[in-house]
Amino acid sequence: MKGLKHNNHSVGQNCFHLVWKVKYAYSFLNRLHLKKCVEGVIKLISMQNSWEIYELKVMPDHVHLFISFPPTITPSYVFAVLKAKTAGALFRNFPWLKTYFRKGHFWSPGKFYRSVGNVTYDVIQNYIKYSQGSWKTNFSNLPSYYQQRKLPSFVA
């Protein structure tokens, strides 16, 4: 995973692990032509929107995607775009799928997402606990990665 992104008025990371399933948990994506279609559409949409894919794995009944996108975009929007475009491409290129998905919904409405970064939960928790409000700790006892740093040290 690459470092921080520099935007007009911000510096940061906006990486997510996204997972979504095929409706009814059908294992259609084990067919190579369907799998390649889904992968191709996801890569194309990501390229068109300047989203960066770190990892993509299409499983028989679900998709795992590790992706970065601008902080002005929500994970729900990314899901909506990717699910709509991939389903549309699948139904257009493989009309026989409509016999299994009569209402035109290839993907299940559910989704999983988790923000991902290179800082662990413990580091953030201890940073907030020990750096806000009154200082009630001896800094010499804290490991160096818990010490508060200035913004240029993150950027460099």
SSE-based structural type: alpha+beta
Question: From the 3D coordinates, which CATH architecture of the largest domain would you assign?
Answer: 2-Layer Sandwich
**Quaternary assembly:** single chain
Separation of the first and last Cα atoms = 16 Å
Classified in CATH, the superfamily of the largest domain is Transposase IS200-like
Please tell me how large the radius of gyration is.
Answer: 20 Å
Shape: elongated
Give the number of DSSP strands: 6
Helix content: 25-40%
Q: Provide the succession of SSEs.
A: EEEHEEHEHH
CATH class of the largest domain: Alpha Beta
> Major sheet: order of its strands?
4-5-3-6
CATH topology of the largest domain: Alpha-Beta Plaits
How does the major sheet shape up? 4 strands, antiparallel
Content of β-strand: 15-25%
List its traits.
156 residues, alpha+beta, Alpha-Beta Plaits, 2 domains, 4-stranded antiparallel beta sheet, two-stranded antiparallel ribbon, 4 helices, 33% helix, elongated
Tell me briefly what this model is.
By secondary structure, the chain is an alpha+beta fold. Helix content is 33%, strand content 19%.
Task: Characterize the structure shown.
This protein has 4 helices and 6 strands. With 156 residues, the protein is of the alpha+beta class. The strands form 2 sheets. It has a 4-stranded antiparallel sheet with strand order 4-5-3-6, covered by helices on one side. It has a two-stranded antiparallel ribbon with strand order 1-2. It folds into 2 domains: 5-116, Alpha-Beta Plaits (2-Layer Sandwich); 121-155, no CATH class. The chain is elongated, with a radius of gyration of 20 Å. Helix 1 packs across helix 2.
